[in-house]
Write a structure and sequence with these properties.
Number of helices of chain B: 7
Strand order of the largest sheet of chain A: 7-6-5-8-4-1-2-3-9
Distance between the termini of chain A: 55 Å
Strand content of chain B: 25-35%
Structural class of chain B: alpha/beta
Largest interface: A-B, 92 and 80 residues
Number of helices of chain A: 8
Strand content of chain A: 25-35%
Low-confidence stretches of chain A: none
Distance between the termini of chain B: 57 Å
Strand order of the largest sheet of chain B: 9-8-7-10-6-1-4-5-11
Radius of gyration of chain A: 21 Å
Shape of chain B: globular
Number of strands of chain A: 15
Helix content of chain B: 25-40%
Largest sheet of chain A: 9 strands, mixed
Number of strands of chain B: 13
Shape of chain A: elongated
Largest sheet of chain B: 9 strands, mixed
Mean pLDDT of chain A: 97
Helix content of chain A: 25-40%
Order of helices and strands of chain A: EHEHEHEHEEEEEEEHEHEHEEH
Oligomer: heterodimer
Chain lengths: 311, 250
């Protein structure tokens, strides 16, 4: 049994979500190989080779993989997959984009966003915005899986010394081309891997008011997130969204400010270790999952919180 | 250009689903059902393309039991021209749906298929990518902006983890919708009445030559562990004290 894990990276460094996918592969058992598909990404392969428990890194360095377009990357995976029992990627925008395409070409029913491994063919995943948990069994020859990063403790980034093997590119499909990107720039930790997250909802009333949360975030070295309502209202960009169809987070501490707590939002954060809710509506559903609830006007409470954290 | 939109009938997003006592699934009897919200965005986008003169016809396709026709009617009321209902009582998983949609696409020859990025019941996020793969078309998932160029290409802005990404893709094309692509309209009463007269063609998986049998076996479905509500604190000072000394997270 050998697992192939698709490495998430930006051509210069391994993204931490990969370590969680490797952890899921470790639970499945057997050898673990990594696939680094990119352009001028030798440094990524070198870094990947150090991840604990990995026995081989496959490096496909080609212009076709410069931005991990789904058409080209899936084609590469399809060529490699027959040698593997499991092909995994983290449930990230890249994993979600590429893996189902590869699965369909392999005639495999993918198992999406697993949060547990019962055995080599049986996996646990949530459905209905986390309101039900299903255990599913696959009889497909190759298991194609995406892994919910927050559900698996990260594999160690160092300690391994895997061999790096070059693999031939599978060709340019010519179907798509990368044009450009607008990435949110932030000095704060990444939302999905931050130890503390502070999120704002519709109650924030404007994008400007998010600066209040940023000040608190800077005191706590926290990431800033948002509910769908705040993103739809244009207060903050889409990559802030925490929830069923946004990002799934599970930090040590999640502070929900002005968020009512729709089930779709809870789906994205209810596995956080400690949840704090600040809301002026004492009946807001968010209080039903909060370890510590503060019924207060956020425009007073948040600056006060920032002050208190300075002490 | 014909546009095909796939619409799924799901438990309404406002319903708090209940796991069945026997652990076989969730309760869907006597529960309000609606069109998957991402598919509403898909229908809206297709109708706007028609209104903007880019599309000539919008076909709404739904797959599943007879009641799926209600979901197709909703799409027709929003402005789709006709419907196709793939009738089956078999549990449909994304790969089977993609195969069935491919068979419909082979027959109808649209240049663009629009699907929701994710259905809010199985949360799989697969079908659009799979359909694109089986057709050998390009794919643009999690779209927040679609521009059809005159030269057989389209520019699509995608919502990705770090922000937004724009790609140029060749037509024919499968896109999957993200939340910010548009704001779906409400169907007006006259349009709901008109939709009743629009045609819905019925086909079966057998007629399409597709075996829809599920590949994944669901062994059990259970309730998630419940989080118990904690305490209300009276002040910010008390909150900070609890976080420092009780929870020890800051």
């Amino acid at each position: 049994m050998t697992n192939l894990v698709l490495v998430e990276h930006d051509n210069s460094a391994v993204k931490s979500a990969t370590l969680h996918a490797v952890a899921a592969a470790q639970k499945i058992g057997g050898d673990i190989h990594l696939l680094v598909a990119g352009q001028n990404c030798r440094a990524v392969a070198d870094e990947a080779a150090k991840i604990a428990g990995v026995s081989k890194v496959l490096l496909a360095d080609d212009a076709a993989y410069a931005s991990r377009l789904a058409e080209n990357t899936a084609k590469l995976i399809v060529g490699l997959a027959p040698s593997y029992s499991h092909v995994l990627a983290a449930t990230t925008a890249m994993g979600k984009n590429v893996m189902p395409r590869a699965a369909a070409l392999l005639d495999v029913q993918q198992i999406s966003d697993i949060s547990g491994v019962e055995s080599a063919d049986t996996f646990v995943r949530t459905i209905y915005a986390g309101n039900a948990v299903a255990t599913v069994q696959s009889a497909d020859k190759v298991k194609v899986i995406t892994v919910r990063p927050t559900a698996f403790e990260a594999a160690a980034a160092t300690g391994g010394s895997a061999a790096i093997e070059n693999v031939a590119a599978a060709g340019e499909t010519g179907l798509a081309a990368f044009v450009g990107q607008e990435l949110s720039k932030s000095e704060r930790p990444e939302l999905t891997s931050a130890r503390i997250v502070i999120s704002g909802g519709r109650g924030m009333q404007s994008g400007d008011n998010f600066h209040m949360l940023e000040k608190v975030a800077d005191k706590l070295n926290a990431a800033v997130g948002a509910s769908r309502a705040a993103v739809d209202a244009g207060f903050v960009p889409n990559d802030y969204q925490v929830g069923q169809t946004g990002k799934i987070v599970a930090p040590e501490l999640y502070i929900a400010v002005g968020i009512s707590g729709a089930i779709q939002h809870l789906a994205g954060m209810k596995d956080s270790k400690v949840i704090v809710a600040i809301n002026k509506d004492e009946d807001a559903p968010i209080f039903q999952v909060a370890d510590y609830g503060l019924v207060a006007d956020l425009f007073q409470a948040v600056p006060e919180l920032e002050q208190a954290l300075s002490k | 250009m014909k546009v095909l939109v796939a619409v799924k009938r799901v438990v309404d997003f406002n319903v708090k689903v209940r796991v069945k006592a026997d652990g076989t699934g969730v309760e869907t009897a006597n529960v309000k059902m609606s069109m998957n919200p991402f598919d509403e965005i898909g229908v809206e986008e297709a109708v706007r393309l028609k209104e903007g003169g880019k599309a000539t016809e919008v076909i709404a396709v739904s797959l599943g039991p007879t009641q799926c026709q209600e979901t197709i009617r909703t799409a027709l009321a929003m402005g789709a021209d006709r419907g196709i209902h793939v009738q089956t009582d078999v549990e449909l998983q994304p790969l089977a749906v993609a195969k069935l949609l491919k068979a419909v696409v082979d027959k109808e020859q649209p240049q663009l298929c629009i699907l929701g990025k994710q259905a809010i019941d199985d949360d799989a996020n697969q079908t659009g990518q799979m359909l694109s793969a089986l057709l050998g078309w390009s794919q643009a998932t999690f779209a927040s902006k679609l521009v059809i160029n005159g030269d057989g290409t389209a520019n699509v802005t995608r919502e990705v983890d770090g922000g937004l990404e724009t790609i140029q893709v060749k037509m024919p094309l499968v896109i999957t919708t993200d939340l910010r692509l548009n704001e779906p309209r409400y169907a007006s009463l006259p349009n709901i009445m008109k939709a009743k007269k629009k045609p819905i063609e019925q086909v079966t998986p057998e007629a399409l030559g597709v075996d829809p049998a599920p590949r994944l076996k669901t062994l059990k479905v259970v309730e998630p562990p419940k989080r118990k509500a904690g305490v209300k604190v009276k002040s910010v000072a008390e909150l900070v004290d609890k976080l420092r000394n009780e929870a020890k997270v800051i």
